[in-house]
Amino acid sequence: SYQEPVLVSSTDSVGTKLKVAFKVGRHDTVGFDIVSHCGNDIVVQGAEPLFFLDYIGISKVEPAAIEGIVTGLAAGCREIGCALIGGEIAELSDIYTLGEYDLVGTIVGAVEKADVITGEKITPGDQLIGLGSAGLHTNGFSLVRRILFDRCGYDVDTYIPDLSATVGEALLVSHKSYVRSILELRKVCEIKGIAHITGGGLPANVLRILPDGCLADIRKRTWEIPPIFPFLQAKGDVEETEMYRVFNMGVGMVVVLAPDTVDAALASLNASGESTFLIGEVVAGEKGVQGVGS
């Protein structure tokens, strides 16, 4: 059905969130995570996922762990409508610690050349819509582990009343996929820019989609912040600016739209089950992001 297709790809890993999965002994959630992360990375350019491949490097193959990972990978691919066409399992006992592994994924998608979302059409006056995150997603886990395991001495089975969950349950909440919601939104209105909020938080990820002369003015406290973030900030005595630089702080994706398309966009996103928030606007000024992490 494509007339002039452009292929868009992404390769990424789950990072040190795997260390939590090892402690808990649960492996399906990280499989889902890597597909969601990669899928979100290509849909920001408007690409529809086509296929996904995985790489698992492990000290010694453990069938239960591999089964859990692949179960999560398959669920993630079903979620975004792409094929899981294969992968590689490498048994490398000289590299990986017994009982641990690394998980990497590659996704390939396609979009019409005329429909690629680049951010170059963003202008002052455009509105910023934040899509709520499910929690930590897959970023900042080195800091999280230092705070909760090293500083606080918690175990993954420690129940935290403030989170209504054990530490392990709270940390393994899956990376939310926005692929289907964004593809539906594209049918309703023109999307000028999209930022997937991963490492670097709102400041770094919104910045990369802005053209010269555009300043993103983000207004704090215009969205719901999941309890995991203030809990980590208090337990780790982390400065607020650092929180916004490391974590998504409750906004997993930012969509930039012309003002006259906001109502239709919100209706579409809400119909897709997203939590949506008007978190700011684009103003004239030196290219940058203000209001968070500064």
From TrEMBL:
Coiled coil: none annotated. GO terms for cellular component: cytosol. It is found in: Cytoplasm. GO terms for biological process: 'de novo' IMP biosynthetic process; adenine biosynthetic process. It catalyses: 2-formamido-N(1)-(5-O-phospho-beta-D-ribosyl)acetamidine + ATP = 5-amino-1-(5-phospho-beta-D-ribosyl)imidazole + ADP + phosphate + H(+). Residues 124-288 form the PurM-like C-terminal domain. It is an enzyme of class 6 (ligase). Residues 6-111 form the PurM-like N-terminal domain. InterPro entries: PurM-like_C_dom, PurM-like_C_sf, PurM-like_N, PurM-like_N_sf, PurM_cligase. It holds the Pfam family AIRS_C. GO terms for molecular function: ATP binding; phosphoribosylamine-glycine ligase activity; phosphoribosylformylglycinamidine cyclo-ligase activity. Pathway: Purine metabolism; IMP biosynthesis via de novo pathway; 5-amino-1-(5-phospho-D-ribosyl)imidazole from N(2)-formyl-N(1)-(5-phospho-D-ribosyl)glycinamide: step 2/2. It comes from the Eukaryota. Its EC number is 6.3.3.1. Belongs to the AIR synthase family. PANTHER family: TRIFUNCTIONAL PURINE BIOSYNTHETIC PROTEIN ADENOSINE-3, TRIFUNCTIONAL PURINE BIOSYNTHETIC PROTEIN ADENOSINE-3-RELATED. This is Phosphoribosylformylglycinamidine cyclo-ligase. It comes from Geodia barretti (Barrett's horny sponge). The lineage of its organism: Eukaryota, Metazoa, Porifera, Demospongiae, Heteroscleromorpha.
